[in-house]
Amino acid sequence: MNGLTSSGHPDGPAPAVRHGAVLLVTCLALATVVSAMASLNVALPGIARDTHADQTQLSWIIDAYSLVFAALLLLAATLGDRFGRRKALLGGLATFAGVSLAATFTTDPVVLIALRGVLGVAAAFIMPATLSTITSTFPRAQQARAVSIWAAVAGASAVLGLLASGAALELWSWRSLFWLNVVLAGVALIGTYRFVPESAQPDNRRIDVVGAVLTVLGLGVLVFSVIQAPEHGWGSPRTLVGIAAGLVVLGVFVAWELRHPHPLLDPRLFRRMPFAAGSLSITLQFFAFFGFIFVVMQYLQLVRGDSALVAAVSVLPMSAAMIPSARLSPRLVARRGARGPWTVGLILVATGLFVMARLDADSSYWLLVSGLVPLGAGMGLAMAPATAAITDALPSHLQNVGSAVNDLSRELGGALGIAVLGSVLSAGYRSHLDVGAVPAPVADAARSSLAAAAQVGQSTGNLSLVDQARDAFASGMHLAMVSGGVAALVAAVVVALLLRRTAKSRTVAGHPQADAAGQAARSAR
């Protein structure tokens, strides 16, 4: 180990590890990066007003973080494992705090997009290092409990981030959310320096840099083309060529990984049907979920007129349904097998989105609740078997790969969901907005986003333009919700087909032969 103990200390007696402090610090670091995925959605109306960002730029402000996070996750995890997880945490948290501080001073949406992308780089180093630090530091007997706490924090941080952001926006502007990032990352940085021991798995294997570059390039071109599609038209040569180019690069990535002796991700793993089903299911679940959050937060504030805090509180019924269904899911899977509960969960997700596709400017809150409940219940029901399918399909020595694929599927699905559903929303909004009777400068501002339309309509006294913009947004939201529901239905069909020959004795949850690593990985999600 090149002069290092398993904890990374010089040979000889190592300082006693304070496991409680290590768990607290790593969970705080995890909460910092997870909450940043969702929290800024609450602030989109304020960002649009202050920076004059259009609808496409708003999509990029949210998606730059998730896209870079997903694209660099495999490479960052590999580097952290090889050169030191404590180093990855310290570097990632310091960068996260510094860039968040810089974001509090910006007024340019393009600069804000770039800074969010750099935050994604930092998060890609932080998130895998948190779980790896726990599993490499804690004794075997304590790992399951520690990992279950880590998983609870990972699941709750997005909702808590929305609530904390809503409360902060009641007192200050959207910049308060980046100040919150500075404080959380700063405290986690100090705690890491003070309590977290170094750990690593050094080896001489060549790092797959080419695979990492191909991943970043392919995903970047693909998502860029999708987000920019409303600007140029979905059928324009620029959009079609961009999407095709992104897919070609990702195809080259697959071919490269098949030939590389130590790939970032071996495509052959997807020949295992449960593994493929789990990866696809999580990708499409979070495609629908994060796309929904992006759309509904703007609807609640800009169409319904709710405050940021009320908007965040309004989606709590989703969490109230998700928690008990997530606890029930393993029991159902153990009794009936994974296929039934898993498929039903995905169908419930689609049902919730189809219900909320009926929302308009005058809809009752109870219509929103009637969609939030099945959406939350379905997410809770489907996530456990999907995650377990990934980890249980792999042997013990590939459990780190399983955890990385689970994280990658979630982040990639979220990035694509925001890109695609945000793009569908933008295209629907612009196509349904009638600005023929207003001056060209006013029309251009109204087309850029609903927030701009509301601002220019109120400043000019043209309240009918505001009403038209809200109706146009509701029409675009209808298309986005239906698209998300269709994605969930596709996932349900594919999962049912891939698992049709899987016997109950080989189901992914409650498997009697699952090893300790598999059990820990299941607890982590």
What does this 3D model show about the protein?
There is one protein chain. The chain is built from 19 helices and no strands. The protein has helices at 19-38, 44-51, 55-83, 85-103, 109-137, 140-171, 175-195, 209-232, 237-259, 273-303, 308-314, 316-336, 339-356, 365-392, 399-432, 440-448, 450-460, 463-498, 516-523. It is globular, with a radius of gyration of 23 Å. The longest helix has 36 residues, at 463-498. Residues 1-13 and 503-525 have low confidence and may be disordered. Helix 6 (140-171) crosses helix 11 (308-314). With 525 residues, it is mainly alpha-helical.
Q: How is this structure best summarized?
A:
With 525 residues, the protein is an all-alpha fold.
Name some characteristics of this structure.
525 residues; disordered C terminus
Pick out the low-confidence regions. Answer: 1-13, 503-525
SSE order, one letter for each helix or strand:
HHHHHHHHHHHHHHHHHHH
Main sheet? none
Distance between the termini: 31 Å
Proportion in β-strands = under 5%
Class based on secondary structure composition and strand pairing: mainly alpha
Rg, nearest Å = 23 Å
Count the beta strands: 0
How does the overall form come out from the CA principal axes? globular
What is the mean predicted local confidence, pLDDT?
82
Q: What percent of residues adopt helix (DSSP H or I)?
A: over 70%
Q: What is the tally of helical segments?
A: 19
